[in-house]
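Researcher: Predict the fold of DsbE family thiol:disulfide interchange protein.
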Amino acid sequence: MKRSRWIPLAVFALLAVLLGAGVWLSRNPNREALPSPLIGKPAPAFALPVLHEPGRTVTNADLRGAPYLLNVWGSWCPACRDEHPVLTRFAETRRVRVIGFNWKDEPVDALRWLEQFGNPYWLVIADREGEAAIDWGIYGAPETFLVDAAGIVRWKHVGPMSEATVRDELLPRLAELERR
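Model: Structure tokens for DsbE family thiol:disulfide interchange protein follow.
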């Protein structure tokens, strides 16, 4: 009888140890660095309308030939508003084409947002239904991808980019592309 009283305590202790081990093993000093299965692989194929010209479609093949930064955003995204000034300053350097990937947004809302905050993008494609985003592995906004001239994904950043992200992560990867 006394032995059965200890079983719940032992089960609780075992669960606590497992939970603690899981937390300890999942430590990651850079919480925004998530591995992407796309790194080193061709960018997913897409054919999406241009936000400002809905009758015009752009494909991933149309963007090959020069590197580009694909920035996923939406007018509904508060973090995109935080990132926008950083992205705008970077785009002004004209170091690489910055392509906007407007995700799950109403065109009128997206256009109003760009009018209000400015348009740093060389081109904005619209994935209103979010179907192309699935192939890219996009699950939130903002997310940013660096794609090289051959159409290979070289870098991914999840969350809003900061000046430090641009300086410490993006610029070194761009320099790598320029050396190739």
